[in-house]
Amino acid sequence: MLVISHYYWQSAVVPRYHPWRQLRNMFPHVTITTRQPLAGDLKGAWTRHGIHLHEGLNQAGRRSTLTHELIHRERGTVCTGDASDREERIVDEIAARRLIPLDELLDVLLWTESRVGIEAAEELWSNAHMLGVRVQTLTDDERAYMAKELQRRQPW
């Protein structure tokens, strides 16, 4: 008789973050418009009518922007449109961490030979901006873990 360990069935894999599901669960009354031209380089905006996502965003861009907007709502903050704003940097980092788990980032960087670009972002179901934020805000512990894993997986 074959006995499979109980632990085999309990995967340590965390389900991928799904901003559309979060929107449905937390804000079921909010509508999304994805064909809205927005001013300047604005990608998304909360209004009294709902959330507007820039019409030019692709799927990964909509996912990344919606996550960013949801975090603003969770934090009770408003986007000022100023990219240098401290709150924008905080929201971007939270969004990047939520969108790109460390182990997925590691896998993609191995696959792309450590190239952080559009190809890697698409593989992570994110936009390039969020990927850049994720890599730039790695903690020392995360960097050490990644270096150790890279060495273990590619020992040459």
Measured between the Cα atoms of the first and last residue, the distance is 41 Å
Low-confidence stretches: 1-11
Q: Major sheet, described briefly?
A: 3 strands, mixed
Please write the string of helix (H) and strand (E) elements: HHEEEHHHHHH
Overall pLDDT metric: 85
Give the overall shape.
elongated
| Main sheet strand line-up | 1-3-2
Which oligomeric state applies? single chain
Strand content: 5-15%
Give the C-alpha Rg: 18 Å
Tally of contiguous helical segments: 8
Tell me roughly what share of residues is in helical segments: 40-55%
Task: Compute the number of strand runs.
Answer: 3
Structural class: mainly alpha
What does this structure look like?
The protein has 156 residues and is mainly alpha-helical. 53% of the residues lie in helices and 9% in strands. It has 8 helices and 3 strands, in the order ααβββαααααα. Strands 1-3-2 form a 3-stranded mixed sheet, with helices on one face. Helix 2 (19-26) packs across helix 3 and helix 3 crosses helix 4. It is elongated and about 55 Å long. Residues 1-11 have low confidence and may be disordered.
Overview features:
3 strands; 156 residues; 8 helices; three-stranded mixed beta sheet; mainly alpha; elongated
Quickly describe the structure.
By secondary structure, the chain is mainly α.
SSE layout and pairing:
Elements: H1 6-9, H2 19-26, E1 32-36, E2 44-47, E3 50-54, H3 59-75, H4 86-99, H5 102-111, H6 118-123, H7 128-136, H8 140-153
Parallel strand pairs: 1-3
Antiparallel strand pairs: 2-3
